[in-house]
Design goal:
The complex is a heterodimer of chains A (144) and B (108). Chain A is mostly helical and 144 residues long. Chain A is 52% helix and 8% strand. Chain A has a domain at 8-96. Chain A has four helices and three strands. A two-stranded antiparallel ribbon of chain A has the order 1-2. The relative contact order of chain A is 0.12. Chain B has helices at 2-6, 8-13, 26-36, 49-53, 97-104, and strands at 16-22, 42-44, 57-63, 66-69, 72-77, 82-86. In chain B, strand 1 (16-22), helix 3 (26-36) and strand 2 (42-44) form a beta-alpha-beta unit. In chain B, the strands form three sheets. Chain B has a two-stranded parallel sheet. The chains are: A mainly alpha (144), B alpha+beta (108). At the A-B interface, helix 4 and strand 3 of A face helix 1, strand 1, helix 3, strand 2 and helix 4 of B.
Chain lengths: 144, 108
């Protein structure tokens, strides 16, 4: 393996891990390719890890100096922190949801409501249902 | 919700009207409508009254004192009966629009 020159594998690995972390809000706000917002991030982190393995082997080869080894180690460590934060947000924080034991179940009647839409118009479930075969009711966390 | 908007023709063909609800005031939701061109109603439930009746309140979700709705999707038939529902256990994972469209075919 060629070991002289700039260790671009480490840099690419580092940038990829930052990009992977940023991909969730990006996927969320721009594309609708996925119904699992974690998937692109996980794929990118795996690719980043491959670059880190190659880059670290290169940095720790005998002919490379201390600077190369230290900087490669720092970038690897930073990426591990970013990955850890991603795992925490995606797999722990995002699952911290209430029990919702009282959610109406299949076969039960949906509670009627009348709420205001973005044009200031009142929309009610029962009135909409009277004109349709069905309603798809979507609750979401909001824009913030 | 963008997945639903992208498939809006299929929902319309199935006779199903999407309705979305969050705690956001109408002005905030209007930004969302402007940005993503939603053609179905986005309703505001700032007092959490409806969200609470569906037991979907995620208390202090954003910060202390700021509660929101946890994500959930319900397919309701014309008699008001729930035919299908999806309650995600991870709010980074949502229902697949194709799956919902498949379910709309069983509506009477």
């Amino acid at each position: 393996m060629k070991t002289k020159g700039f260790n671009w594998q480490i840099l690419i690995g580092f940038l990829l891990s930052l990009f992977a972390f940023a991909s969730v809000p990006m996927v969320f706000s721009q594309w609708s390719v996925s119904t699992d917002y974690r998937s692109l991030g996980v794929v990118l982190f795996v690719i980043a890890a491959i670059f880190f393995v190659i880059g670290l082997r290169r940095a720790f080869s005998a002919e490379r100096g201390k600077f190369s080894k230290i900087s490669a180690s720092i970038l690897t460590l930073l990426s591990c922190v970013v990955f850890g934060l991603f795992v925490y947000l995606a797999f722990f924080m995002a699952t911290a949801l209430p029990k919702s034991a009282g959610v109406p179940q299949v076969g039960q009647k949906a509670h009627d409501f009348t709420l205001t839409d973005t044009n200031g118009k009142q929309v009610s479930l029962s009135e909409t249902l009277s004109k349709q075969k069905g309603v798809l009711l979507v609750f979401y966390r909001g824009y913030w | 919700m963008r997945g639903i908007q992208q498939n809006i023709d299929k929902f319309t063909a199935a006779g199903v009207a999407p309705i979305a609800i969050s705690v956001d005031p109408p002005e905030t939701s209007r930004d969302l409508v402007d940005r993503y061109k939603f053609t179905f109603p986005i309703l505001s439930d700032p007092t959490l009254e409806t969200i609470r009746r569906y037991d979907l309140v995620h208390e202090n979700a954003v910060e202390e004192g700021v509660s929101v709705a946890r994500p959930g999707e319900f397919l309701i038939d014309s008699t008001g009966t729930i035919r299908w529902l999806n309650l995600t256990e991870n709010y980074w994972v949502r229902a697949n629009p194709d799956e919902i469209i498949e379910k709309t075919k069983s509506l009477p």
